[in-house]
Automatic annotation (TrEMBL):
It catalyses: L-cysteine + L-glutamate + ATP = gamma-L-glutamyl-L-cysteine + ADP + phosphate + H(+). Belongs to the glutamate--cysteine ligase type 2 family. YbdK subfamily. GO terms for biological process: modified amino acid biosynthetic process. It comes from Amycolatopsis pretoriensis. This is Putative glutamate--cysteine ligase 2. ATP-dependent carboxylate-amine ligase which exhibits weak glutamate--cysteine ligase activity. InterPro entries: GCL_type2/YbdK_subfam (IPR050141), GCS2 (IPR006336), Gln_synth/guanido_kin_cat_dom (IPR014746), YbdK (IPR011793). The lineage of its organism: Bacteria, Bacillati, Actinomycetota, Actinomycetes, Pseudonocardiales.
Length: 377
């Protein structure tokens, strides 16, 4: 790792829906065929389909600054939204569907997606959960495993800040992240176990594959993991972000957590193993309450107000944020989120207007109104 800030990248998953009825629209292949006609994308930005044809994903390139990342995410959202509209679809940044499933059954999955369907059956039959995945550059795999050990305490707080999945096919679940409830049903989900090095990490993943719990080694459900494709630590805890600003906040906090972990490791401070049961309780509390209730500190094994946990996170990474040049940006983004509410809070505020209005509102929040403009909320 260089002396500068670690690199970062973000993968954003979106839902495609009928803009009038809110029914999920299995139009990913058509949108992917059309998107090149709706404007250029920055170098390194990629778009592709997801598990279900009602989902589509945009991935930024490798970025070093918040401004560069914001430009990548903004461009991708605009291009995909334009292509979706041309196919009579709306692009929605929400962790779970606000409306019903497809009006007609989509075609059967093929390839690796068919393998996933065969392995998990009804668990994935209507699985349309969308996440925001953050990659932070860590070149050495043993170091990456040690970094992941340091992250477990803070993952529930990142989830609470990202909460943007209160509904399940039109039903208010009472949770702020129903996506995390759905994800927790998969074997081997949640906070990764405390592992010594990359060799043990590979053995642990291989054992889950051998047990039939995973389709392949690339499919771990841990909320932070060593990427199998890139020299990065990958955060998979956050719901897909309502706005570009929410995604940028997740990326900057994730990068700061990695930098703080690297500083701790350089000083000889290894992570303290967490109780798996308490870590699971902490993730559940974040999914249930978001930032509106009490959250669990999985290290201290205590419960307290959500914003106290957010403040503890900010204190933990303050030096790292400052060193990365991100402190003022994160302070402004957190203040805006605290004033306007997370995506789940904002979604509930408009839910009473009906599905069609909720879709219109989500469409407007998904696509930034002006190039390089910081959004509130």
């Amino acid at each position: 790792m260089s002396d500068g800030p670690p690199t970062m990248g973000v993968e954003e998953e979106f839902l495609l829906v009928n803009p009038r009825t809110g029914h999920a629209s299995p139009g990913a292949e058509q949108v992917l065929a059309r998107y090149p006609h709706h404007g250029p994308l920055p170098d390194g930005v990629r778009v592709h389909r997801e598990l279900r044809l009602t989902q589509i994903e945009a991935a930024s390139g490798v970025c070093t600054t918040a401004g560069e990342l914001r430009d990548h995410l903004t461009a991708a959202r605009r291009v995909l939204a334009g292509a979706a509209a041309a196919e009579d679809c709306a692009l929605l940044a929400t962790g779970t569907p606000v409306g019903p499933g497809p009006a007609t059954p989509p075609p059967a999955a093929t390839g690796r997606y068919a393998d996933i369907d065969a392995a998990y059956g009804a668990l994935v039959a209507d699985y349309e959960a969308c996440g925001c995945h953050v990659h932070v550059g860590v070149a050495d795999p043993d170091t990456a495993v040690a970094v992941v050990n340091h992250l477990g305490r803070w993952l529930p707080t990142l989830l609470a800040l990202s909460a943007n999945a209160p509904f399940d096919h039109g039903r208010d679940t009472g949770y702020h992240s129903w996506r995390m409830v759905l994800q927790s049903r998969f074997p081997g989900s949640g906070v990764a176990p405390h592992l010594r090095d990359h060799a043990e990490y590979r053995r642990s993943v291989g054992t889950l594959v051998d047990c039939g719990a995973l389709v392949d080694p690339d499919q771990t459900f841990w909320l932070a993991r060593v990427s199998g494709r890139f020299p990065t630590v990958e955060f998979r805890v956050a719901d897909t972000a309502l706005t570009v600003d929410h995604a940028v906040l997740q990326a900057l906090l994730s990068r700061a957590l990695v930098r703080r972990a690297l500083d701790d490791l350089a000083a000889g401070r290894e992570a303290v193993p967490l109780s798996p049961q308490v870590a699971a309780a902490a993730v559940w509390a974040a999914a249930r309450h978001g930032v509106t209730g009490l959250l669990v500190d999985p290290l201290e094994e205590t419960r307290g107000p959500a914003w106290s946990r957010v403040e503890a996170l900010l204190d933990h990474v303050r030096t790292a944020l400052d060193d990365n040049g991100d402190l003022a940006e994160v302070q402004a983004l957190v203040a805006a989120l605290r004033a306007d509410g997370t995506g789940s809070v904002q979604q509930r505020a408009v839910a009473g207007r009906g599905t069609a209005e909720a879709v219109r509102w989500l469409t407007a929040r998904t696509v930034p109104p002006g190039h390089g403009t910081r959004l509130t909320g």
